[in-house]
């Protein structure tokens, strides 16, 4: 009986997750379309709210479809309380749960990730701090960018 359930549930879950991923890509594309200051200025107004609400909801829904339910105990620190949010060790796809639960903050990511199809568009909408592994000054530049965003007094989203 469990094999039969797996045969039915696996394709349904795959279809649902694909649909959710395409909705996330569409939302990210709309929010970043003709974005002023592309990546150098923070998203504001409806663009920022759209990313925070839509992508957060879609990510939670995708994890629910995969069979995960996450409950938060306590209160998530606000942007002004904690401009930098540390999550470690970040080594799996479960990191997206933390992003969804904290309102889709900016993340620190490899620059190469921004060019991947579909996921790159979604990632770019989070306004990541891109780390280039080829640049010898990358570490210094990343620390400077994180510091600049942390000291922006709420203009930039939290950095995770």
UniProtKB/TrEMBL annotation:
Keyword field contains Lyase: no
One Gene Ontology molecular-function label: lysophosphatidic acid acyltransferase activity
Cellular component terms (Gene Ontology): endoplasmic reticulum; membrane
Entry keyword annotation includes Transferase: yes
One Pfam family per UniProt: Acyltransferase
Top-level lineage group: Eukaryota
Keyword annotations of the record: Acyltransferase, Lipid metabolism, Membrane, Transferase, Transmembrane, Transmembrane helix
InterPro entries (UniProt xref): Plipid/glycerol_acylTrfase (IPR002123)
Chief subcellular location: membrane
Cellular localisation: Membrane
Annotated TM spans: 7-28
Family: Belongs to the 1-acyl-sn-glycerol-3-phosphate acyltransferase family.
Protein name: PCAT2 acyltransferase
Organism expressing this protein natively: Prunella himalayana
